[in-house]
């Protein structure tokens, strides 16, 4: 198994080789066992590789270079906003006044941190056009659930127990119907029309006195700005429902449009997308939720407020949906987002959206030469292609994605949204240069040529990666989750 290219650290193991040196034990070993207690002491030593510090260092360094990250290459993964995360954010998050404090510390001793949280709340309130914001939710889906729980508490608080349905467009991110279900609602689908927007006739058909809310992603998952928001808002509000805005795509509209001004009641943001929290490895996120004043009593508690000159947490909130997370949110990610917003400034944030939209449209128009464009109109921050033409030649969208790995790119999102055949969904973000966009488009156009002239080359890709194409079905059905010695 072991080879130079993929060193399995266990195979380098030599008996008694160590990567540490500890002083001699100066108490009897039995006493240590006694202190730990019977149940905590191993009967046999753990089977760990016995290697030197240098070997383990090389092992992990080698593994780290086999990952693709936004710091190593272009990452146009649609719906994910894989933009560059400025390193200044990291410096600020590591200031000891932020990183060495404890959530149980008396609030008088952490006024600086609370001041940052308060300012971030105020800033996000301004950016979204809502009345107030909570920083508690840990990510986008968690924000959705939090917002829906508030909508539920609101309806029940008005004595309306009949509102059991949440309307979700068929183009929505998968987390939307999932959050609605977990929040105890029935998710009802509203169709998109041939232009990729919510079909108003279908919306009128599915709305009724059981509608708790409409969850809308805007710009939607096709990268298109929903044109009929005001009409949708009045349809839903007239039926007594509330409007939920999935703001994970805010990168497209910063400083240009605000959910609050469009009539939305509840909105969540993904700070780890739009506001440069590093993400992609399942790490911590932050999904603040903004609401209008009528939802304020239902916010998760405690809420952070200012009393005279002190920031304090207020716990006496009888209508609150309760805590949604231990302590006060993913503070470190919030520090990064705050740093980003302050370094960009209001004008800078507008530019973010301008360039994000410009980059997406530039790529889309160049790629249109070879790839089917199902919705031929200006897009916002991302766009959808279809690999239909290539499929006729026997090359599937999956093959195209795998071939892109040979060029050193992370592929776009594929087979999503599900309402587009052989979908390819790309989001370049504002932080990429024209040269990078051009090089990526050239690679895509070359792959389209290969699909015609040499389809096998694409079908058998990737050719240059450490691991070739994986058998994903077997990997899912029979996962090998730990090292098994072959002897
Ligand atoms: C990413 C995303 C979500 C989910 O956010 P998580 O932080 O991954 O839970 C929801 N909606 C849209 C449109 C998204 O792009």
From TrEMBL:
It catalyses: N(6)-[(R)-lipoyl]-L-lysyl-[glycine-cleavage complex H protein] + glycine + H(+) = N(6)-[(R)-S(8)-aminomethyldihydrolipoyl]-L-lysyl-[glycine-cleavage complex H protein] + CO2. GO terms for molecular function: glycine dehydrogenase (decarboxylating) activity. It holds the Pfam family GcvP2_C. Its EC number is 1.4.4.2. Residues 353-453 form the Glycine dehydrogenase C-terminal domain. Its cofactor is pyridoxal 5'-phosphate. The glycine cleavage system is composed of four proteins: P, T, L and H. In this organism, the P 'protein' is a heterodimer of two subunits. The glycine cleavage system catalyzes the degradation of glycine. The P protein binds the alpha-amino group of glycine through its pyridoxal phosphate cofactor; CO(2) is released and the remaining methylamine moiety is then transferred to the lipoamide cofactor of the H protein. This is Probable glycine dehydrogenase (decarboxylating) subunit 2. It comes from Halobacillus seohaensis. The lineage of its organism: Bacteria, Bacillati, Bacillota, Bacilli, Bacillales.
